[in-house]
Design brief:
There is one protein chain. The chain contains 1 helix and no strands. The protein is rod-shaped, with a radius of gyration of 26 Å. By secondary structure, the protein is mostly helical.
Length: about 60
């Protein structure tokens, strides 16, 4: 396994793996930013829904 072809194949595989991991990390970072934005929006929407539900519940029970 000390042939130049084997060394070239190993180098190519290592380079391709590094490139894939680098690209994957970049995509993962972008996805984390987008997920964070959506999560903040989701929390705001959930808070609004929760307060609406609470007011409806109080109105229903205290009338």
């Amino acid at each position: 396994m000390h042939s130049p072809a084997a060394a070239a194949a190993a180098t190519w595989a290592a380079t391709a793996t590094a490139r894939w991991h680098g690209g994957h990390q970049t995509a993962a970072a972008a996805a984390a930013v987008l997920n964070g934005r959506q999560r903040r929006r989701g929390r705001a929407a959930t808070a609004e829904l929760s307060s609406d539900w609470l007011y409806d519940y109080r109105d229903y029970n205290y009338d």
